[in-house]
Specification:
The complex is a heterodimer of chains A (273) and B (82). By secondary structure, chain A is an alpha/beta fold. Chain A contains 9 helices and 10 strands. Chain A has a single domain, classed as Alpha-Beta Barrel (TIM Barrel). In chain A, α2 packs parallel to α9 and α7 packs parallel to α9. Chain B has a 5-stranded mixed sheet with strand order 2-1-5-3-4, with no helix packed on it. The chains are: A alpha/beta (273), B mainly beta (82). At the A-B interface, β4, β5 and α3 of A face β5 of B.
């Protein structure tokens, strides 16, 4: 068979690996580290996801030691690319402070910038986000900006120097999947920097459909961590991201409103009287 | 109580009163940041320290930063997040 060498997905690789700010990553799936039942489960799920980029949050050390929260006791920073977020920040100033603290940890100058505008929906405050992006870019940060699915904000973030723009599929932790494929596709078509869809992916089919829009990657946390079996869901997400990417690169068939037979219409038997 | 009515915490002789992660703490006079981290059994390499709004990026300076009255110390680290 002529395409036998292409049948194995092992050999059918992505011709263009994900590159952000000159850094090449081994997976288009990025995962969060929150909400797992245990650290052991988190590690197992992250390994199953194949992700290289893992997000972490900056918080006060619990000086009473009631919980074992320090993630670096469990996550090898030589094996994973730590991407600190500014989750929970509601102003540009607050997000900038958290980003600076994260950089002082000494791993890298990258930040997943979140400036949240509303407690109920956790939708981004795009005005604060742009302000914080400009400041942090000026300080040498590599900013990956979590934003809504608005093209104009995405364009402004790119202009402000963000190295990647991260529009949401749907609100953080909602698992609603991609609510506006047109908006996501438009953002991808208009931006030069990588577009990583962040938030809202609830199951493997959501991830696959997101990747089929041609975006560069997906970041997810709850979709894996809140599954009944997070390790199995991480495996499903890994395959879905790869499948969606392959489907995008393959180019889907055109949609038709009428049927087109797949079997020959000739060579049919004559009907018997 | 002062004239303005604010409560002033009187430090005992040889003590420094400061705030660490939002809570008041009393440490012996002359203690450095390294002493504080040591007493909290924290590895300086795994935390980031902000003192009065300024991040202390040079961890080797911890042993020479003496804690002062009313210092606001924040000790943070990475935790799980999305």
């Amino acid at each position: 068979m002529a395409h036998a060498d292409l049948i194995s997905t092992e050999t059918l690789t992505d011709p263009q690996p994900l590159v952000i700010a000159g850094h090449e990553f081994r997976s288009r799936l990025m995962v969060g580290t929150g909400k797992y039942a245990s650290n052991a489960q988190m590690i197992e799920a992250i390994e199953a996801s194949g992700a290289e980029v893992v997000t972490v949050a900056v918080r006060r050390v619990d000086l009473d030691r009631t919980k074992d929260e320090a993630i670096l006791h469990h996550l090898d920073p030589d094996h994973f690319f730590l991407l600190a977020n500014t989750a929970g920040c509601y102003t540009a100033a607050e997000a900038i402070r958290y980003a600076r603290l994260a950089r002082a940890a000494g791993f890298n100058e990258w930040v997943k910038l979140e400036v949240i505008g509303d407690q109920q929906t956790l939708l981004p405050d795009t005005v604060g986000l742009l302000e914080a992006t400009r400041t942090l870019v000026g300080e040498g940060f590599k900013v990956l900006a979590y934003t809504n699915d608005d093209l104009i904000t995405a364009l402004k973030l790119e202009e402000a120097g963000a190295v990647a723009v991260m529009p949401l599929a749907s609100p953080i932790g909602s698992g609603l999947g991609m609510l506006n494929p047109y908006a996501i596709r438009t953002i991808k078509q208009r931006l030069s920097v990588p577009v990583i869809v962040d938030a809202g992916v609830g199951t493997a089919s959501d991830a696959c459909i997101v990747m089929e829009q041609g975006v560069d990657g997906i970041l997810m946390n709850t979709g894996i961590a809140a599954a009944q079996d997070p390790v199995r869901m991480a495996t499903a997400m890994k395959q879905a991201v790869e499948s969606g990417r392959h489907a995008y690169l393959a180019g889907r068939m055109p949609r038709r409103e009428v049927a087109v037979p797949s079997s020959p219409t000739t060579g049919m038997l004559e009907s018997r009287p | 109580m002062t004239e303005s009515g604010a409560v002033v915490t009187e430090a005992a002789i040889g003590e420094v009163v400061l705030t660490v992660n939002g809570a008041e703490r009393r440490v012996p006079l002359g203690w450095t940041l390294a002493d504080l981290l040591g007493s909290l059994q924290l590895d300086a390499r795994t935390v980031v320290v902000e003192r009065n709004g300024v991040i202390l990026r040079d961890r080797s300076s911890f042993a020479s930063v003496e804690l002062a009255l009313d210092d606001a110390i924040e000790i943070v680290h990475f935790v799980g997040g999305g």
